[in-house]
Design a protein that fits this description.
single chain, 109 residues, alpha+beta, OB fold (Dihydrolipoamide Acetyltransferase, E2P), 2 domains, 24% helix
C-alpha cells in the first residue's frame, strides 16, 4: 500500500520535471523568427572561425539602440567602420547568448 503512494509521487515528480524542461526549451527555441535591430558600429575587425579551417569572418562591436553592446558577424553590407549605422538580426540560441548578424548599412556618421 505504501509503495503505491511512493510510485504515484515519483510519477508526478517526473511528469512535472519533463513539463518544466519542455517549457524552458520551448521558450528558447532557436527556430523562432529573428528579431530586426539597429545600432552603431563601435569598432570592427576579423575573427578566426574554427568551423572553417584557417578562415576568418568580419565582426564588429555594435552599440544597439537600447544601449547594449554586442558582437555581430558581418554577413552582408560590409565592410563596416566605426560610426556606421547598421541593421542587425538577432537569432535566439537554445543554449547561450543570442547570435547577432549585420545584414545592412543604414547610414554612417
Amino acid at each position: 500500500m505504501h509503495g503505491d503512494a511512493t510510485n504515484k509521487k515519483t510519477i508526478v515528480s517526473i511528469i512535472a520535471a519533463v513539463l518544466f524542461v519542455g517549457l524552458f526549451l520551448a521558450s528558447r527555441w532557436p527556430a523562432s523568427a529573428p528579431r530586426s535591430l539597429t545600432g552603431t558600429v563601435q569598432n570592427s575587425g576579423s575573427v578566426s572561425v574554427a568551423r572553417v579551417q584557417g578562415g576568418t569572418q568580419s565582426a564588429a562591436s555594435v552599440r544597439l539602440s537600447n544601449g547594449n553592446l554586442v558582437t555581430a558577424y558581418v554577413v552582408s553590407g560590409g565592410p563596416v567602420t566605426p560610426g556606421d549605422k547598421v541593421r542587425l538580426l538577432e537569432q535566439a540560441n537554445l543554449f547561450g547568448a543570442p547570435v547577432y548578424q549585420i545584414v545592412a548599412k543604414v547610414g554612417s556618421h
